Each structure stands twice: as structure tokens, then as C-alpha cells.
């Protein structure tokens, strides 16, 4: 517990830019940085524990796995479970209820570690703290719509009952849709479930904004007439029909995404579905949260309806469809009209960040991320003399019995490291009077490059020798085990990743959240 306290994200101050924000990374960490009582509405469509692989089409290259909706009760689940228990022991709001629920599940299913019950146990362990944090960031008049399917809906309902309170459950909405089905052994599954909860007994519900036309059969009945709303003191007719139509019941017939609305994202939902939710449970100017924003249906609907929005998704692979969508429909550009915060979680995502070339904002974000993994501060990217990061350190000198100042620099390269690159960086390093220089790249370097780097010699400190010019190759191993960094480079200090830097957006400083992968 407490690791998220090292993560520094920009706090919302009500500025125009802050009313649109997109985050990539672990949504639990992001949610824990948000203040209490921030959003009027959270409507979200989390993974369903369905065991399916989902793919997203990236550019014109190939299908890449966006995420795998499978679950194991592994070390990550165990760590999350302990975190929930520790927070419950400290009486943190919501976690006592979440811990009680998870304990109850363990009793019912005998604490499974393998098989389908273990998968469900892991899934609920994943969802519980996230629902707790979603409730915390809701305003007192806020609402929560949880979109799910029959795979785990009954368990999620009980989890929400415990965290929000059973009395705060308002509706179970059935979204019914039509599609072809070849099943011969079951009733075709053609609906999802949306649970609606409120944080308190005082909630927003804009009935007149979501009315739909009456059916022909209702209008044809002689005893029902459409009349204008009665004025104050006027008699109310029991057969009165509202001139704007009726409030939708809890079965919503809406088609799946078709045609131009489809962005190729496998779990994409129709915008009309979320527009109805947003109209009903928020007002213009309110902030809407989607903690599993996928291809951005919720934030698209929120922007359409003049709401602010916060979108969070685990993978940077979702950025491309969101960018396309917000540009095409609202003429909003990522990084210019709304900030994008986040970090890569594997080498595949690093390559996505680099796809648009060295002049793109995502490339600069990658440079910043790589530099801060070494505990260095990014340079301005313009006129930096070939240096992307600088670190100043004070080291204890055993013989002198005092601290000595030491400087390190680094440069990030996405392409192959060649001799001219090494020589240019060595010159920049010496011009900066740095003790150690580190080149950062993605490719394996040749034996000739290694020999060239060794020509720079060694820095001696307290009886140990450290190569003055070193190379860190970013691989998937680093994302699996960040401590592997110290197997690739040798330094007289322990690098401490920096989680807070200040890039510039059109002359304004904004804080960029960078997480430890």
C-alpha cells in the first residue's frame, strides 16, 4: 500500500484544459490521485471476465492484441487483496465493505487458486478497489452506471450493493440488441446489463431530457391524450401523456454500432446508449468519468453533450482510435485541446509511441519517460545539444569523508545505434562535463559499438569501476521486472524513477504523470 502516493498527477483546478483529460495506465493508480467529490457521473464498461482476446487494428500493419480478458489468481491479485485488507484495517471509506465482500467470496468458494472460481476471484479482487475509488470521486449527487454481461453481473451487483449500499441501487437496465446467432443449444444472448447506483439519496435525474415517443398502441388508446404539462394549481388528469414523450423503461432497444460509427474496437458500444445515460444523470458543464474508456464512446458522448470528461484506459493502443474519433467528430487534437497522460506498459506500446516520428508529441513523451526511468530530468528537446536528460548526484567519498558532486547525462535513440551516434554523444557528454553518459535505445548494439564505448574509460568511486559511457536497451524484460535495469548498466547510485515532469503546452506548463511500470 502507498505506492500510488509517489505518483504525482496534475490536480484538477477547473481550467478549460482540465475539463478534458485522457490517462493511460492502471486506472486504480489514476483514480487514487483524483480528489473526492469531483465527477457528477461515472459510466463505464469494464472487462467482463469473459476469457476472450480482443484485438485492435493499428494503422495498416496488422492486428495487435489490445488486451486479454482472462484472469489468474497470481501475485498481482494477491498484492491487491492485501492492499484492500490493509486499507480496511485502517478503516478507509469503502474498503471495509470491499474486504467483507471478498472474504465472503473466499468462504463460499473455499479460497480457490485454480480454475474458473479462481478466475472469478481474481476478477472481483481487481474490480473491488476500483469501484471503491469510483464511489469516492463521485459528487454527493453523483451516479454510477456499471455496464456488464451475464458472465459476472450477479457478482458485480452484490459487490456494488456492499460498496454503495443496497438502498442506493436504482435500476437494472437491460440493453437489448439484435445480431445474427447460430446457436442451437441455447437461447441466443442478445443483451447486456447496466446497473445504476447513486452515491446518496439526492441525485440528478433529468427525466425530460431523455423522453422518447410513445408507441402507436399507446397513442391510439382513446383514454390517453397528449396534453401540455398542467400549470400550478391546475387539476391533473390521470390519463395525461407528456407532450415530449415517455421516460424510457429499463429495457432499451438500441442497435449495435454500425457503419461510420464503428472504429474497429471490439468492445465498442453505440454512442446513443451513453448519450442517454449522460443526459439523464448529469448537467452541462459537469465532469463525466469513464475508468475503462476503450475507444472513447463515453468521452465522445460527453463532449457532444457539453460535459467535461476524464477517460482512463490501460493501454496506449486505445489512443489512436480516440484521437481519430475526437478529431473527426469534435475537431479536438490530442495534446493541444486535451492533455494525454500515461506511460507504456510493454515494448509494443513503446513502438506505438514512436510511430509518428521524432517530431511528434508521443515521441517526446517517450523520451521523457525513458529519461525519468533513470532518475534524470528531461531537457527542453530544443537546443539540447544531443542530450535528453541530466542528473546531478552527491556521492559519499570514503577516503575524503565527504560528498562529491557527480553529473550524468543521457540520450534517447529509437533507431539503430551507429558509430557516429556514439561519437557525437561522447562529445556532448564531455562538453557537459558529465562523469557518466548513458545511451538509451531499443536495439541490440554490435560488438564494435561496445568497444567504441569502452574507449571512454572508467569512473572510479570507492574502489569500484564504472564505465563512463554505457548503453541501456529497453526490452520487455524491463517492463516485467524494472530492477533488471541494473543488470544492463552499472552506476555508483541507485536510479530512482521520477514521476513528475513539466512539459509545455502552448506556453502553459502542465504536469505529466509518469508511472513506474
Task: Characterize the structure shown.
This protein has 517 residues and is of the alpha/beta class. The protein folds into three domains: 3-210 and 247-342, Rossmann fold (3-Layer(aba) Sandwich); 211-246, no CATH class; 361-513, Trna Endonuclease, Chain: A, domain 1 (3-Layer(aba) Sandwich). Helix content is 30%, strand content 24%. It is built from 15 helices and 24 strands. Helix 3 (95-109) runs antiparallel to helix 4 and helix 3 (95-109) packs antiparallel against helix 5 (153-164). It starts with 19 loop residues before the first strand and ends with a strand. The model is unreliable at 1-17, 50-68 and 500-517 (pLDDT under 50).
Keywords:
24 strands; 517 residues; disordered C terminus; five-stranded mixed β-sheet; Rossmann fold; Trna Endonuclease, Chain: A, domain 1; 3 domains; disordered N terminus; alpha/beta
In short:
This protein is α/β, with parallel strands linked by helices and 517 residues long. The protein contains 15 helices and 24 strands. It has helices spanning 27-31, 75-89, 95-109, 115-137, 153-164, 216-220, 271-281, 297-304, 319-330, 347-354, 361-373, 419-431, 447-454, 476-480, 485-488; strands spanning 20-24, 39-44, 53-58, 62-68, 138-148, 169-176, 191-198, 225-227, 240-242, 251-253, 287-290, 308-313, 340-342, 377-378, 389-397, 402-412, 436-441, 458-461, 464-467, 469-473, 500-501, 504-505, 508-509, 512-513.
Amino acid at each position: 500500500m502507498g505506492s500510488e502516493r509517489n505518483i504525482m498527477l496534475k490536480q484538477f483546478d477547473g481550467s478549460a484544459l482540465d475539463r478534458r483529460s485522457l490517462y493511460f495506465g492502471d486506472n486504480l493508480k489514476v483514480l487514487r490521485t483524483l480528489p473526492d467529490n469531483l465527477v457528477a457521473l461515472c459510466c463505464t464498461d469494464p472487462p467482463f471476465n469473459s476469457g476472450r482476446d480482443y484485438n485492435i487494428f493499428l494503422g495498416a500493419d496488422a492486428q495487435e492484441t489490445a488486451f486479454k480478458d482472462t484472469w489468474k489468481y497470481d501475485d498481482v491479485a494477491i498484492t491487491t487483496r492485501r492492499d484492500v485488507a490493509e486499507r480496511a484495517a485502517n478503516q478507509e471509506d469503502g474498503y471495509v465493505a470491499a474486504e467483507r465482500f471478498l472474504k465472503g467470496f473466499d468462504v463460499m468458494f473455499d479460497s480457490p487458486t485454480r480454475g474458473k472460481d479462481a478466475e472469478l476471484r481474481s476478477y472481483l479482487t481487481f474490480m473491488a478497489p476500483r469501484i471503491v475509488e469510483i464511489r469516492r470521486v463521485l459528487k454527493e449527487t453523483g451516479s454510477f452506471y456499471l455496464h456488464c454481461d451475464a458472465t459476472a453481473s450477479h457478482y458485480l451487483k452484490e459487490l456494488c450493493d456492499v460498496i454503495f449500499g443496497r438502498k442506493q441501487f436504482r435500476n437494472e437496465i437491460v440493453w437489448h440488441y439484435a445480431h445474427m446467432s447460430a446457436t442451437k443449444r441455447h437461447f441466443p444472448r442478445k443483451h447486456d446489463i447496466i446497473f445504476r447506483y447513486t452515491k446518496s439519496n439526492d441525485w440528478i435525474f433529468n427525466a425530460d431530457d431523455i423522453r422518447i415517443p410513445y408507441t402507436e398502441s399507446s397513442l391510439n388508446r382513446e383514454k390517453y391524450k397528449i396534453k401540455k404539462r398542467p400549470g400550478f394549481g391546475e387539476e391533473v388528469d390521470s390519463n395525461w401523456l407528456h407532450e415530449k414523450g415517455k421516460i424510457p423503461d429499463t429495457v432499451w432497444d438500441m442497435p449495435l454500432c454500425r457503419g461510420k460509427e464503428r472504429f474497429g474496437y471490439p468492445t465498442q458500444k453505440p454512442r446513443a446508449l451513453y448519450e442517454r445515460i449522460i443526459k439523464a444523470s448529469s448537467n452541462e458543464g459537469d465532469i463525466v468519468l469513464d475508468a475503462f474508456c476503450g475507444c472513447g464512446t463515453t468521452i465522445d458522448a460527453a463532449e457532444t453533450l457539453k460535459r467535461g470528461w476524464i477517460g482512463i484506459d490501460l493501454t496506449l493502443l486505445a489512443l489512436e482510435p480516440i484521437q481519430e474519433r475526437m478529431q473527426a467528430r469534435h475537431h479536438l487534437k490530442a495534446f493541444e485541446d486535451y492533455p494525454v497522460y500515461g506511460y507504456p506498459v510493454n515494448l509494443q506500446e513503446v513502438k506505438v509511441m514512436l510511430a509518428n516520428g521524432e517530431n511528434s508529441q508521443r515521441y517526446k513523451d517517450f523520451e521523457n519517460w525513458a529519461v525519468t526511468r533513470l532518475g534524470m530530468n528531461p531537457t527542453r528537446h530544443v537546443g539540447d545539444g544531443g542530450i535528453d536528460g541530466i542528473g546531478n548526484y552527491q556521492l559519499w567519498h570514503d577516503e575524503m569523508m565527504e560528498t562529491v558532486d557527480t553529473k550524468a547525462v543521457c540520450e534517447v535513440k529509437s533507431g539503430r545505434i551507429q558509430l557516429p551516434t556514439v561519437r557525437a554523444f561522447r562529445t556532448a557528454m564531455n562538453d557537459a562535463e558529465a562523469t557518466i553518459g548513458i545511451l538509451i535505445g531499443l536495439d541490440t548494439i554490435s560488438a564494435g559499438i561496445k568497444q567504441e564505448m569502452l574507449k571512454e574509460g572508467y569512473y572510479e568511486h570507492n574502489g569500484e569501476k564504472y564505465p563512463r559511457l554505457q548503453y541501456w536497451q529497453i526490452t520487455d524484460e524491463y517492463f516485467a521486472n524494472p530492477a533488471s535495469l541494473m543488470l544492463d548498466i552499472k552506476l555508483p547510485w541507485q536510479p530512482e524513477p521520477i514521476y513528475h515532469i513539466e512539459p509545455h503546452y502552448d506556453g502553459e506548463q502542465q504536469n505529466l504523470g509518469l508511472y513506474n511500470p
